[in-house]
Known about the structure:
This protein is an alpha+beta fold. The protein has two domains: 3-57; 61-232, Glucose Permease (Domain IIA) (Distorted Sandwich). Helices cover 22% and strands 36% of the residues. The strands form four sheets. Strands 11-7-8-9-13-5-4-15 form an eight-stranded antiparallel sheet.
Amino acid sequence: xxxxxxxxxxxxxxxxxxxxxxxxxxxxxxxxxxxxxxxxxxxxxxxxxxxxxxxxxxxxxxxxxxxxxxxxxxxxxxxxxxxxxxxxxxxxxxxxxxxxxxxxxxxxxxxxxxxxxxxxxxxxxxxxxxxxxxxxxxxxxxxxxxxxxxxxxxxxxxxxxxxxxxxxxxxxxxxxxxxxxxxxxxxxxxxxxxxxxxxxxxxxxxxxxxxxxxxxxxxxxxxxxxxxxxxxxx
Length: 234
């Protein structure tokens, strides 16, 4: 897979380069002993590489059968897999699958299913640790709902964490959702929740590591009944 730097990080990286030069050039020119400049440059260099790693944006392509496929929306660890009630849009019981991203993971988010975006909205909120269950409804977050070609609804929720302070959502109502496309980006540590119809077959467990746009996490049941929200919107 090809890797590039995500455009969300371009300005941050340029500013960081400027700060590194501003701090270290005077040290090399006028401060002695020289070891001070060496240590400073190494420490700033390591920090720059960590930020650069955070904003990497690999080009990925799902190689499996896309029919009824649910693919991980984010890199990270599965921290929740349970039946819950989704109160914002679906308003019914669903299967919640949550992936927590550390600062070392890719933070681009992929669409989990093929289909059409029928709902996309942003909510202001708190910045609690993203691994806490209540962060799904209390933290800063964006909610995206997709209708698959078979008419089933899948909800994805981008959730900010204690460090993450900005959620970027590219998904807009009416656009085509494709598994290989970016749904959005969350800066510096966060979580993505998927709400799937009951009866969805899952292939991961809590504690498993998944790769966004690559790992098949589930397969929608082809004969599942429409969710109540879908029927009320017709």
